TrEMBL record, chain A:
Protein known as: 4Fe-4S ferredoxin-type domain-containing protein
Matches recorded under SUPFAM superfamilies: alpha-helical ferredoxin (SSF46548)
Occurrences of domain 4Fe-4S ferredoxin-type (ranges): 5-36
One Pfam family named in its UniProt record: Fer4_8
Chain ranges passing through the membrane: none
Keyword annotations of the record: 4Fe-4S, Iron, Iron-sulfur, Metal-binding, Oxidoreductase
PROSITE patterns assigned to the protein according to its UniProt record, in alphabetical order: 4FE4S_FER_1, 4FE4S_FER_2
From TrEMBL, chain B:
Source lineage: Archaea, Nitrososphaerota, Candidatus Wolframiiraptoraceae, Candidatus Terraquivivens
Keywords, in A-Z order: FAD, Flavoprotein, Oxidoreductase, Transit peptide
Single GO MF annotation: D-lactate dehydrogenase (cytochrome) activity
Any one of the GO BP annotations: lactate catabolic process
Domain FAD-binding PCMH-type: 45-218
Name of this chain's protein: D-lactate dehydrogenase (cytochrome)
Residue stretches in coiled coil: none
Family matches, as InterPro entries: FAD-bd_oxidored_4_C, FAD-bd_PCMH, FAD-bd_PCMH-like_sf, FAD-bd_PCMH_sub2, FAD-linked_Oxase-like_C, Oxid_FAD_bind_N
UniProt KW Transit peptide keyword: yes
Organism annotation: Candidatus Terraquivivens tikiterensis
Protein family: Belongs to the FAD-binding oxidoreductase/transferase type 4 family.
Presence of keyword Oxidoreductase: yes
Enzyme Commission number(s) from the entry: 1.1.2.4
Cofactor(s), by name: FAD
Length: 389, 475
């Protein structure tokens, strides 16, 4: 029986029901019903718990399936938290509720399958984890697997396995090489565990976190670099909580690394005659606060950088977060098309993001339109411009 | 009440399945508005809707209302559900009509500065749309980030900009509405019923489906201001002086509690607002303001701080974080009575051991909208109920002082007789003429109904609240 922690309990009652979150929620934008809005969900929780935070088991069993549908129709983009009148940590609340639904067996089938896949294969695609580094051969990247190094490049499941964005791994590898970094890949990288946290299977995510941290620490690396905002969020913010200690390394997103390299002159990138627009990945920008760095990089290498409608902390989700793609692919697609439309209407030549999943999602939306624009990851763009890939 | 399957089937046939919901979770979340209902009150009313409809067009709205008439099913119009007087809460089930899907911008008359929008559009979307034009909204509520245009037309219509441009009704030229018999009508000054007769009727006489708003040319300059004072009296006198000597777009005065999150030099009371218009006029007003603030020994905040406060103007409920609940009421009050009213609120607060806080939004030099609130905890049911009685006491005092409630809905309906008897007669006779079956938002504004359609006389309600206030002593 889950007891909502004191802080969340107070938050649920403090919700002003003002609806500012509802107006911004990208899922509610398409579905419209109150129960699909953050405000509606908070109200539903309030009706499902007793005053001391204990769950009303009878109600949960009656409404569990309906709740699950609503709480998994969410991209975890965090915009609701950003605009909240009374500063409720809504992402934290959503996580607790997904945990509760998971514990009660009320999670969508695809989510069950995903967590099963992760338990067995340590990656989200249910592939043999030994093939995780096949991208090296496909792309011809120059990488190494060392026993000790200063930097670990944590590739992540999507970049490792998904053909369209394996070039992101190639680009980041080539940039690390070009900056003469003492770096390595992990010999046995496991999924970062973020998808399990999103599934509500937090306990199971701990095993993955433990493995990855042990691997990095055994190499003695001081820094872990990743190009995936989901992995970044997990390694930097979720691991300390999951493990109850701060891992002994710093975590950097590739866009931060590029910013440091370019500002220090370690990397010189020629300016291109191109107009760019940038899509902030929710987990990187709004949630982790990495907003300045990718812009600094892009402003240096492009003729012009135009901001789309809703950017920075206000950025609108591309639809690929929160496991929405697994749970409700058609809704995820609608979100992607909407976001792509906003980016394309800036008139920029190229759409850039700093997330392989966003890139993949927006690129798919682009192909569904006439004269779809090119969508690339920031590291691909930089590596291309220096002539590394 | 249970609605007949027949009704539901026809509804689904006419509108399409995607517009109608009877999902139990959906019903749960449509059974309330901004205010937390004490559990005991929930026993009196049947607040759970039997179905929720999300129309896509004015034709859909008319269809729902026609059918509801045929089957005598209550229809409860709902915009952003940000009004705290129970206007969107069913009292004996029925159909909640969620109007937020009617959210299109219909037409901008660039030449004359007229904008036609559907009723469910949220103010913020209009503001975003107007950014690309040379026009702006003259008035909007401080809930502009989620409330709808139709919701404001149905309620008070006083907000930011009202000081300079008047209430919302002065800024609407015409509207289209569906009457309780399902007829769609155009409303303006000359129509019968007229726009002003139905304006502010709290969803009991019509459903507005679109409105044509007056716009104003974008201001050349905008200069927010903020000043804090070591006494409320000084703040109030300074504010009145500013009103006498200048013409602000808005001026809002608040007591300390609203500043809980902030660290001001003079924490007792502060006011903030904005001058808009031609640059030379705005700058002149600002100089006058500086002089007035000095005269009343206030502290004029640096302009960047004032700018941040102005940006924060939509976040008036931040203080709820510390509640976790709040209770309050709103009323229009003559400016000379403000100080007495605040004093009375504080007196009641000290009796009940509560910090009662006040926000005053000036509507003109002699009238203001006063919002009184205090923090409480809805989980402590009996105490919460006794505290709710404070809001009634405050309202009674406001009426005695020549004020009137800023909205009636479900909670303030017993006060209309004392505050606005003529308006009540007019609404009653319009209700009889337009909605003889009582389908549109029954049990609100001019009279309440309990779960089974039993009437709840205002006097009985008043006695109950007095009893509850008395109970406070026992508790
Ligand atoms: C933070 C905050 C700030 C606020 N500031 C202000 C303010 O500055 N000024 C102010 O006046 N109020 C304010 N309010 C109260 C409220 O937001 C306004 O009254 C708002 O206009 C209500 O709009 P809504 O769309 O939320 O209406 P709802 O709450 O959905 O409905 C209100 C009433 O109108 C009826 N209704 C709704 N839509 C229609 C329609 N299309 N046709 C007919 N009837 C309809 C409903 O039945 C109900 O009785 C504030 C509220 C909050 C939470």
């Amino acid at each position: 029986m889950l007891v909502l922690p004191k802080l969340q309990l107070e938050d649920v009652f403090a919700c002003a029901q003002c609806g500012y979150c509802m107006k911004r929620c990208p899922v509610h934008y398409f579905l419209g019903w109150e129960s699909e809005s953050p405000r509606g969900k908070v109200f539903a929780i309030k009706e499902l718990i007793k005053n001391d935070g204990r769950v009303d088991e009878k109600r949960i069993h009656r409404l569990g399936r309906l709740l699950s549908k609503r709480f998994f129709n969410c991209t975890f983009c965090g915009l609701c938290r950003e605009v909240c009148h009374v500063e409720i940590d809504l992402l934290e609340l959503w996580s607790r509720v997904r945990e509760m639904l998971y514990d009660h067996g009320f999670v969508p089938e695809n989510v069950v399958r995903l967590s099963e896949a992760l338990r067995l294969s340590k990656n989200i695609y249910m592939m043999d984890n030994a093939s995780r580094t096949d991208w090296v051969a496909y792309t011809g990247a120059d990488v190494s697997f060392k026993d000790s190094a200063e930097v670990v490049y944590f590739v992540g499941c999507v970049t490792s396995f998904s053909g369209r964005v394996q070039t992101v791994a190639q680009a980041i590898s080539s940039i690390l090489n070009s900056a003469n970094e003492d770096w390595t890949l992990l010999k046995d990288e496991w999924c970062c565990g973020h998808p399990l946290v999103l599934s509500g299977a937090t306990r199971e995510a701990r095993a993955l976190a433990m493995h990855n941290v042990e691997m990095v620490e055994s190499i003695g690396a001081k820094k872990v670099v990743t190009g995936c905002p989901g992995c970044y969020l997990a390694l930097k913010h979720e691991y300390p909580r999951l493990l109850g200690r701060k891992p002994g390394f710093e975590v950097l997103h590739s866009s931060q690394l590029l910013d440091v390299y370019m500002a220090s002159g370690k990397l010189t990138v020629p300016k291109a005659d191109v107009t760019l627009t940038y899509h902030d990945p929710c987990e990187l920008g709004r949630i982790s606060g990495v907003i300045r760095e990718p812009r600094a990089v892009l402003q240096t290498i492009a003729d012009a950088l135009v901001e789309p409608e809703y950017s920075g902390k206000e950025s609108i989700c591309c639809g690929s977060g929160g496991l929405l793609k697994a749970v409700n692919p058609s809704l995820a697609e609608s979100l992607a098309r909407r976001r792509y439309g906003m980016l394309a209407s800036t008139g920029a030549d190229v759409i850039v993001s700093a997330c392989p999943t966003c890139v993949q999602t927006l690129a798919q939306a682009a192909t569904a339109t006439q004269n779809g624009k090119r969508v690339v990851d920031i590291s691909e763009l930089v590596a291309e411009q220096i002539g590394l890939i | 009440m249970a609605i007949p399957n027949d009704f539901l089937n026809v509804l689904i046939n006419k509108l399409g399945e995607e517009h109608v919901s009877v999902d139990p979770l959906e019903k749960l979340v449509y059974a309330h508005d901004l205010a937390a209902l004490p559990k005991s009150v929930k026993l009196l009313f049947d607040t759970t809707p039997d179905a929720i409809v999300r129309p896509e067009s004015a034709e859909h709205v008319a269809e729902v209302i026609r059918l509801a008439n045929e089957y005598k099913i209550p229809v409860i119009p709902r915009g952003g559900a940000t009004w705290g007087f129970g206007g969107t809460v069913p009292v004996r089930g029925g159909v909640v009509l969620d109007l937020t899907g009617l959210n299109r911008i219909v037409h901008l008359d660039e030449e004359h500065g007229l904008l036609t929008v559907e009723c469910g559009i949220v103010w913020e979307d209009i503001m975003r749309f107007l950014q690309k034009t040379c026009w702006e909204l003259p008035v909007y509520p401080s809930s502009a980030l989620s409330s709808t245009v139709g919701g404001w037309a149905a309620t008070g219509g006083i907000g930011y900009g009202s000081l300079k441009h008047g209430p919302f009704i002065k800024n609407v030229v015409k509207a289209t509405a569906v009457l309780p018999d399902g007829r769609a009508v155009m409303l303006d000054d000359n129509s019968d019923p007229s726009l002003s007769q139905l304006f502010g009727s709290e969803g009991i006489l019509c459903v507005f489906t679109d409105l044509t708003l007056k716009l104003v040319p974008k201001s050349e300059a905008e200069r927010p201001f903020m000043a804090s004072f070591s006494s409320l009296a000084n703040a109030l006198m300074a504010a009145q002086e500013v009103l006498r000597l200048t013409s602000p777009h808005s001026l809002v005065l608040r007591t300390f509690g609203f500043t809980r999150t902030k660290d001001y030099v003079n924490p007792d009371a502060y006011f903030f607002g904005c001058f808009t218009g031609y640059k030379h006029a705005v700058d002149k007003y600002y100089l006058t303001l500086e002089e007035v603030v000095n005269r009343y020994r206030g502290y004029l905040a640096p302009e960047d701080e004032a700018g941040r406060e102005w940006e924060e103007r939509f976040y008036t409920l931040r203080v709820k974080k510390w509640g976790p609940s709040i209770l309050g009421n709103e009323f229009i009050i003559p400016v000379p009575k403000i100080l007495d009213m605040v004093g009375y609120c504080w007196q009641l607060g000290s009796l009940a051991r509560l910090d009662v806080e006040v926000e005053v939004m000036f509507v003109s030099r002699d009238r203001a909208l006063m919002f009184q609130l205090f923090l409480c905890d809805e989980r402590k049911s009996i105490r919460y109920l006794t505290e709710a009685a404070i809001t009634k006491k405050v309202l009674e005092a406001a009426i005695k002082a020549g004020g009137k409630p800023y909205g009636y809905g479900l909670w303030n309906f017993p006060f209309m007789e004392a505050a606005e008897p003529e308006k009540k007669r007019e609404l009653e006779s319009l209700k009889r003429a337009l909605d003889p079956q009582g389908v549109l938002n029954p049990g609100k504004t001019i009279g309440a109904e309990l779960a089974l359609g039993l009437p709840l006389p205002g006097r009985l309600y008043g006695m109950l609240m007095d009893g509850v206030w008395f109970l406070r002593k026992v508790v």
